[in-house]
Amino acid sequence: MKTTILQPRFKDSEHFKNFWIKGNGKQLIDFSGAKVCFDNFDKFSPFYFEGDQLGDEVVKDVYFTKKFNEATRQIEHYIRNGVSEDDHVHESVKKLFLKTQKIPNWLDYNLLKKGAELCMRGNIDSLISLRDYCLIGGYDYAYLSKPLIATEALKKGAVKRLSETLDFWVNVTRYDALEIHKKGYEFAIKTRLIHSYARLSIKKHYKNWDTENWGEPINSWDMMATYIGFSLVFLHSLKKLGNTFSTEEEKGLFHLWKYVGYLLGIPEELLPNDKKQATEYFYLWTSIQPPSDKDSVLLAHSLLNESLENPILKYQFQRRNLRYLHICCTWFLLDDEVCKRLQIPEVSGKNVFPYSKILINKIYDTIVSRKTRIEKGNKDQMKVLEDYLNITKNSNFH
Questions:
Q1: How far apart are the C-alpha atoms of 196 and 51, rounded to whole Å?
Q2: DSSP H helical segments within 22-142, as ranges?
Q3: Where are the domains of the chain?
Q4: pLDDT by residue for the chain (398 residues), tens digit each?
Q5: SS3 of 10, please?
Q6: Are 311 and 391 in contact (CB under 8 A)?
Q7: Distance CA 383, CA 376 (A)
Q8: For the chain, how big is the Rg over CA atoms in Å?
Q9: What SS3 class is residue 155?
């Protein structure tokens, strides 16, 4: 079998240089104190052609040998009750659960708590950051989006996709959620197996998959980049929107996503401990990604138009207004060049809402206690999730 030697092929491209010399990449370097270079490229690049072998074996042994619902019930039983060395289960199942049930020696529960509190304290800004910076910004990396296209995510619709992302994010960022057998742990294991199921399905059914350029479907290096989105990019977005955070909260956020990544089967050497490491890792990964293509634009517009399709808001004028606000935040949070590539519509007064948010956050920061903000943020985020789940679970909504 031919072995592909990966190079940082886009490091001299305009989109790469503009991002890191004058765009959000430059801001990330200033924000983190990162020293970016290509010295470690060969250390990380092999992961572009590697997936989660252990997760794949579990899917082959469990999901591919019985009906999907039956397999899911079986996995849920293992998640909630645990697997021991003496259990009569598939060897792959035993390996996966004995590994994920073992607490790594680096895990710090206090830091997990601080990370969860920052996610909750960010309230609606956390959800804006996820949607209008992390998700839509990720679509600008053309190869990263290919598994979504291959699994026909556009047919499923942005409301359902957003609901699933929100369900995952909320459930792994609550107090004690990641303790063994708890809900966040369950979401991490299930998501890991969904990724494996999708990877194996793409390899079997999607004949046009371009491994040389796109890597292994849902490969470990792309997974690293995705989870840097949940940590580094998310943190940068909160800062842009006028939120403050302590050193301990910042450490906690990276620690939380490091542990989620560990449960998801991302190799530990790809999981950054802090914003400096995350920026340096992200720099290397972006050098293999071309800018937006037509699939990227379709995905971005599907997400933008989600506000118009979503019946959570009753009246059309409310939905149009929500879409406008998301467009304003997207222009504010992403580089203009990225917005133009993704064909984000130009709107008037696009800075009014983001700058209002910054002002409100500064006032809110001084008059409302941290504890109250965490409690309110948790309540408001849970309400948004509940609304989404009611829409997507109680209907054939696509």
A1: 8
A2: 24-32, 41-44, 53-61, 68-81, 91-101, 109-121, 123-129, 136-138
A3: 18-49+117-170+203-393, 53-100
A4: 455 789 999 999 999 999 999 999 999 999 999 999 999 999 999 999 999 999 999 999 999 999 999 999 999 999 999 999 999 999 999 999 999 999 999 999 999 999 999 999 999 999 999 999 999 999 999 999 999 999 887 778 899 999 999 999 999 999 999 999 999 999 999 999 999 999 999 999 999 999 999 999 999 999 999 999 999 999 999 999 999 999 999 999 999 999 999 999 999 999 999 999 999 999 999 999 999 999 999 999 999 999 999 999 999 999 999 999 999 999 999 999 999 999 999 999 999 999 999 999 999 989 999 999 999 999 999 999 999 999 987 554 33
A5: coil
A6: yes
A7: 11
A8: 21
A9: helix
**Token reading at 248:** 């301990």
Whose tokens are 């796109």? That residue is 214
Distance CA 116, CA 252 (A): 8
Say which residue the tokens 């659960």 belong to: 97
Tokens 């370097």 appear where? Answer: 29
What tokens appear for 178 in the block?
């990641």
- Can you give the length of the chain in residues? 398
